[in-house]
C-alpha cells in the first residue's frame, strides 16, 4: 500500500547501530523511541527503515529486538522498496535499477579475483556483496572498477563498517532510493512536512545528500561516516552529530531540530490523575502507550507502590468494560486488575518489558474511538504478542480524557505473514 496521505513527519532510519544498539541487551533507547513514536507520531507520520539487510536478515532482527513495524522498508542498501504490512515491492524502482546492470558479469569478474562473497541471503537481484578488509578494499575496488568499466556497466561501490563491500547499480543506494520515494510523494502531493534521516556507517552517507532533509549521525558512528561528514557536511546545519548512541541519538536530534513532541513517555514519570490536556486521536494513542507502560512499571516496581498510582490504572477502566483475553475468557478488567496489586515489583530485575506497535485509531462517534495495536510482552522466558482491538470512550478526569470501554486480545502466534515474527505464545493461562 503506497502512501496516500501527507505525513506530518518522516523518519528514515538505518537499523544496525542506528535504530538498534547491539551493545545494549535491554534495548533501552529503542524502547524509548518506540513509545515516543507510537504515542505521538504513528497516526500522522511515516516511519521508514533503510537497511543494508535483505528481507531474510531483516526478519531475523525483528524476531530478536523490539523493532516497530515501519510504513516503508527500504532493504538491501536501497535496492528494494517495500510498503506496509504486506511488504509489497515497488516495481517502478526495480525497473529503474535494471538500467545498465548485468548481475552475472558483476559476479563473474568478482569470482576471478577470488573475493569472499557474503552469505546467500545477502546476494540480491541488484546487490552483490563481499567481505573485504580495510587494507584490501582500495585495491579490490580499483580492479573491479577496471573490469566492470571494460564491460560498460553502470555500477557503484559502497563500503561500510570496515568490512562490507556492496556492488549496486549506479542509480541504487539508500540516498537514491529515498530520492525516488520523495519524487513519488511529490507527484502524488504527499510530501512529508519534515524528514529526518538517521545513520551510522558508510552506506548511510548518501541519505544526508538528499535535498530538503534533516539528518543525524548517531554518537557511535563509524569512522568512515565521520570522515565523510568532515569532508562534505561539516558546515551544514541540517546534519547533526549526536553525542548519544543509536536511538537515543535520534531522539536527541529531534530535540536539536525542535521536531516535537520529542520526550518519550518512558522518560516521564507516570502521570497521575490530572486534567486531561491532549485531545482526539493523540489522547487515545497516549492512553494506550501510558497504560501499558504503567503496567510494566508496576510489575517491575519502577513506580511508587501507592494507592494513588494504582488508582491511575483503574481510572481509565470503565465499570462496564469487558476484556476478552487471548484464552477466550471474558473478564471485567476493573475487577481483574486487583490481582495485579499484590504483584507489585514481582518482575523486578527480570528482563520484562511491554511495548506497543502499529497503533491504528478510528473515531467512530463523537465520544468513541476504535483502536487496534500489537501488544508485545517480553520476559526472560518468553516473547509473546497480543493483537489487540478495543474501544475507548471520552471520560473527563482521566489522564488523557479517555477510558477503556472494551478490549479483545488474540495471540499473534507463529505469524507467518510477509514480515513474520517467530513468536511462541503461552499455550495456557
Ligand atoms: C548489511 C547487509 C550486507 C551489507 C551491509 C552494508 O549488513 O546484510 O549485505 O553489505 O549491510 O551495506
Ligand atoms: Mg548501520
Task: Indicate the topology.
Elements: E1 10-13, H1 28-41, E2 46-50, H2 55-64, E3 72-75, E4 80-83, E5 88-89, H3 91-98, H4 103-112, E6 116-117, E7 128-131, H5 137-150, E8 155-160, E9 164-169, H6 174-188, E10 195-199, E11 214-217, H7 223-232, E12 239-241, H8 246-256, H9 280-300, H10 307-315, E13 317-324, E14 330-331, H11 333-336, E15 353-363, E16 368-378, E17 383-394, E18 402-411
Parallel strand pairs: 1-2, 1-10, 2-3, 10-11, 11-12, 13-18
Antiparallel strand pairs: 3-4, 4-5, 6-7, 7-9, 8-9, 13-14, 15-16, 16-17, 17-18
Helix pairs in contact: 1-8, 1-9
Bound molecules: alpha-D-glucopyranose and magnesium ion.
Account of the 3D structure:
- The protein is α/β, with parallel strands linked by helices and 429 residues long.
- The protein folds into three domains: 9-85 and 173-265, HAD superfamily/HAD-like (Rossmann fold, 3-Layer(aba) Sandwich); 96-169, Hypothetical Protein Ta0175, Chain: A, domain 2 (Alpha-Beta Complex); 269-411, Nuclear Transport Factor 2, Chain: A, CATH 3.10.450.
- It has helices spanning 28-41, 55-64, 91-98, 103-112, 137-150, 174-188, 223-232, 246-256, 280-300, 307-315, 333-336; strands at residues 10-13, 46-50, 72-75, 80-83, 88-89, 116-117, 128-131, 155-160, 164-169, 195-199, 214-217, 239-241, 317-324, 330-331, 353-363, 368-378, 383-394, 402-411.
- An eight-stranded mixed beta sheet has the order 5-4-3-2-1-10-11-12, sandwiched between helices.
- Helix 1 (28-41) crosses helix 8 (246-256).
- Residues 415-429 have low confidence and may be disordered.
- The site of alpha-D-glucopyranose has 12 residues, from strand 8 and strand 9.
- Residues 285-412 form the Sucrose-phosphatase C-terminal domain.
- Residues 8-258 form the Sucrose phosphatase-like domain.
- Catalyzes the final step of sucrose synthesis.
Amino acid at each position: 500500500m503506497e502512501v496516500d496521505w501527507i505525513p506530518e513527519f518522516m523518519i528514515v532510519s538505518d537499523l544496525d547501530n542506528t535504530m538498534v544498539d547491539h551493545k545494549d541487551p535491554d534495548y533501552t533507547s529503542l524502547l524509548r523511541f518506540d513509545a515516543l513514536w507510537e504515542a505521538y507520531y504513528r497516526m500522522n507520520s511515516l516511519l521508514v527503515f533503510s537497511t543494508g539487510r535483505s528481507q531474510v536478515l531483516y526478519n531475523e532482527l525483528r524476531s530478536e529486538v523490539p523493532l516497530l513495524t515501519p510504513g516503508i522498508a527500504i532493504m538491501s542498501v536501497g535496492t528494494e522498496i517495500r510498503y506496509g504490512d504486506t511488504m509489497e515491492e515497488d516495481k517502478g524502482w526495480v525497473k529503474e535499477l535494471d538500467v545498465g546492470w548485468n548481475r552475472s558479469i558483476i559476479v563473474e569478474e568478482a569470482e576471478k579475483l577470488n573475493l569472499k562473497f557474503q552469505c546467500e541471503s545477502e546476494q540480491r537481484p541488484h546487490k552483490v556483496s563481499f567481505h573485504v578488509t580495510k587494507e584490501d578494499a582500495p585495491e579490490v575496488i580499483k580492479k573491479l572498477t577496471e573490469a566492470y568499466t571494460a564491460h560498460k556497466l553502470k555500477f557503484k561501490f559502497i563500503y561500510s563498517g570496515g568490512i562490507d563491500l556492496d556492488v549496486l547499480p549506479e542509480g541504487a543506494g539508500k540516498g537514491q532510493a529515498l530520492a525516488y520515494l520523495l519524487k513519488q510523494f511529490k507527484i502524488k502531493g504527499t510530501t512529508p512536512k519534515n524528514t529526518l534521516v538517521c545513520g551510522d556507517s558508510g552506506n548511510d552517507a548518501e541519505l544526508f545528500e538528499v535535498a530538503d532533509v534533516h539528518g543525524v549521525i548517531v554518537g557511535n558512528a563509524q569512522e568512515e561516516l565521520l570522515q565523510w561528514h568532515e569532508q562534505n557536511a561539516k558546515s551544514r546545519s541540517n546534519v547533526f552529530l549526536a553525542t548519544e548512541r543509536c536511538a537515543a541519538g535520534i531522539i536527541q536530534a529531534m530535540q536539536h531540530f525542535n521536531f516535537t513532541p520529542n520526550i518519550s513517555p518512558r522518560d516521564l514519570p507516570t502521570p497521575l490523575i490530572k486534567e486531561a490536556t491532549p485531545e482526539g486521536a493523540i489522547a487515545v494513542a497516549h492512553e494506550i502507550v501510558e497504560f501499558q507502560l504503567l503496567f510494566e512499571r508496576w510489575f517491575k516496581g519502577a513506580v511508587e507502590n501507592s494507592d494513588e498510582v494504582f488508582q491511575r490504572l483503574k481510572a481509565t477502566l470503565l465499570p462496564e468494560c469487558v476484556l476478552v483475553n487471548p484464552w477466550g475468557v471474558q473478564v471485567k478488567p476493573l475487577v481483574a486488575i486487583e490481582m495485579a496489586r499484590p504483584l507489585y515489583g514481582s518482575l523486578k530485575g527480570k528482563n520484562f518489558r511491554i511495548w506497543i506497535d502499529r497503533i491504528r485509531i478510528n473515531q467512530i462517534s463523537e465520544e468513541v474511538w476504535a483502536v487496534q495495536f500489537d501488544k508485545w510482552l517480553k520476559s526472560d522466558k518468553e516473547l509473546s504478542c497480543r493483537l489487540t482491538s478495543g474501544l475507548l470512550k471520552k471520560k473527563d478526569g482521566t489522564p488523557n480524557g479517555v477510558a477503556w470501554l472494551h478490549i479483545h486480545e488474540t495471540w499473534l502466534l507463529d505469524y507467518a505473514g510477509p514480515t513474520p515474527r517467530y513468536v511462541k505464545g503461552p499455550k495456557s493461562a
